[in-house]
Amino acid sequence: MRSFSIARRRMVDEQVVARGIVDQRVIDAMLKVPRHKFVEQALEGKAYQDAPLPIGEKQTISQPYMVAVMSEALALAGSETVLEIGTGSGYQAAVLALLADRVFSLERIPFLARRARIVLDECGFGKVNIRLADGTQGWQEMAPFDAILVTAGAPEVPQYYLDQLTVGGRLVIPVGDRESQLLLRVTRTGENEYQEEQLLGCRFVPLIGNHGWQERS
Ligand code: SAH
Prior knowledge:
- This protein has a single domain, classed as Rossmann fold (3-Layer(aba) Sandwich).
- Helix 4 links the parallel strand 3 and strand 4.
- The model has no long low-confidence stretch (mean pLDDT 97).
- By secondary structure, the chain is an alpha/beta fold.
- Helix 1 packs antiparallel against helix 2 (24-32), helix 1 (2-17) packs across helix 3 and helix 2 crosses helix 4 (91-99).
- It has six helices and nine strands.
- The chain binds S-adenosyl-L-homocysteine.
- S-adenosyl-L-homocysteine is lined by residues 59-62, 85-86, 88-89, 91-92, 106-109, 112, 134-136, 151-152, 205, 207-209, 212.
């Protein structure tokens, strides 16, 4: 719809480009993916606002700027195999589908995994592979990955992710306490060598699982 594409253009201009995102492929991808389809219909009108939004099950779709920062940090050229932890709405997976060759995404909540599958198919992103599982152990059968993106906050970097990166591969992950984290990029520079960069402060819902946080009732 026309009004949504205008809102989307404004979102990209004001929240993504104006704040320093320069990767043209990320910019183009965010201009293409219909973000309003990935939120509940009642929130459609807010889909292009500068904020995360609830998607049910106490989870959120990330703020557009955060999606842009994380996507850019993965430095994708188009031929990569990527793993996302935390499918949620499926929005970030759709952006990744336009940036990389193969996209795998893990989600632990059945309702969210099911709904993301439907929306991704409706929007033409059938190539995204979703699996219902605790993603704190990565996805061994599909490894190695050129890039791994974790969209929930972890208490520390799980060793599984480091092991499942290709040499040269990038892991982008929020690490900290349950309420606030630091977004890190870890690059596997050799078989047993990793380089860590701190990107920015952030607030994600917790990564819950065996090698993450415990679920709270
Ligand atoms: N990338 C999502 C944002 C999702 S919010 C989007 O674009 O909408 C974080 C998601 O991580 C939630 O859906 C939550 O259920 C999921 N999650 C948390 N811990 C997880 C785990 N151990 N394995 C898989 N998914 C997990």
